[in-house]
């Protein structure tokens, strides 16, 4: 399989460049058979936010896939989900995510907690290597992204992979209408 790439970015094999991903992400990549063709690209950490990166590197927003962490409670039990949506959409937290998690009031995980529990940097949180027990919800449109740009666990790099591979992550659930 050829290394995936995008114009303006230098692709390196993710498996042989663990210094460019968070330790938790490197461990997950090493255990994921589909990771062989994944690329990692170095970026300016000040451009880690999707809109800034898309503008600076002339990438369509539809290539960016954001990972947002949502939590809620039901009967004292907390439920957390990582929601993957294309950057040109927004997760439907108040309806679809609320229904899927079966919680009263879903909310975004506070930044400090998201960073601590994911063991990833804010602006680089990725679905690869998230804690067990968290649901992984993918908007169906993410699967159709030819080259998805996702976090690497660090602000200074991104992973490149076909969107269809995201559906192969452990526990991934493809959901129609997760984003609007």
Terminal residue distance:
33 Å
Number of helices in the DSSP assignment: 6
Q: Unreliable segments (pLDDT under 50, ≥5 consecutive)?
A: none
Whole-number mean pLDDT: 95
In percent, how much strand structure appears in the residues? 25-35%
Instruction: Briefly note the CATH topology name.
Output: YbaK protein
CATH classification, class level = Alpha Beta
Count up the domains: 1
The H-level CATH homologous superfamily, spelled out, is YbaK/aminoacyl-tRNA synthetase-associated domain
* Helix-strand category: alpha+beta
Rg (C-alpha, Å): 15 Å
Main sheet? 5 strands, mixed
Strand numbers in spatial order across the main sheet: 5-3-4-6-9
Instruction: Return the CATH architecture.
Output: Alpha-Beta Complex
Order of helices and strands: EHEHEEHEHEHEEHE
Query: Any idea what the shape is?
Result: globular
Pfam family, one: tRNA_edit
GO molecular function: aminoacyl-tRNA deacylase activity
Domain YbaK/aminoacyl-tRNA synthetase-associated: 45-164
Protein name: YbaK/aminoacyl-tRNA synthetase-associated domain-containing protein
Can you walk through the features of this model?
The protein has helices at residues 23-31, 50-56, 93-101, 111-118, 140-143, 163-166, and strands spanning 11-13, 39-42, 65-74, 77-86, 107-108, 135-139, 148-151, 157-161, 172-175. The strands form two sheets. The protein has a five-stranded mixed β-sheet. It starts with 10 loop residues before the first strand and ends in a 5-residue tail after the last strand. The protein has one domain (11-175): YbaK/aminoacyl-tRNA synthetase-associated domain (YbaK protein, Alpha-Beta Complex). The model has no long low-confidence stretch (mean pLDDT 95). Strand 7 (148-151) and strand 8 (157-161) form a beta hairpin. By secondary structure, it is of the alpha+beta class.
């Amino acid at each position: 399989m050829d290394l995936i790439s995008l114009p303006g970015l230098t692709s390196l094999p993710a498996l042989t460049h663990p210094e460019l991903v968070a330790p938790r992400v490197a461990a997950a990549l090493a255990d994921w058979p589909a990771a062989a063709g994944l690329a990692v690209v170095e970026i300016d950490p000040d451009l880690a936010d999707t809109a800034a990166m898309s503008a600076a590197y002339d990438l369509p927003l539809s290539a960016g896939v954001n990972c947002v962490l949502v939590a809620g409670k039901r009967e004292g039990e907390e439920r957390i989900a990582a929601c993957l949506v294309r950057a040109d959409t927004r997760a439907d937290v108040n309806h679809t995510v609320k229904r899927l998690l079966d919680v009263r009031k879903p909310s975004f995980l506070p930044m400090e907690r998201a960073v601590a529990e994911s063991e990833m940097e804010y602006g680089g949180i990725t679905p690869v290597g998230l804690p067990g027990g968290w649901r992984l919800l993918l908007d169906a449109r993410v699967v159709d992204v030819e080259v998805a740009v996702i976090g690497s666990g660090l602000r200074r790099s991104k992973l490149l992979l076909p969107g269809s591979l995201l559906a192969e992550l452990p526990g991934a659930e493809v959901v129609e209408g997760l984003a609007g």
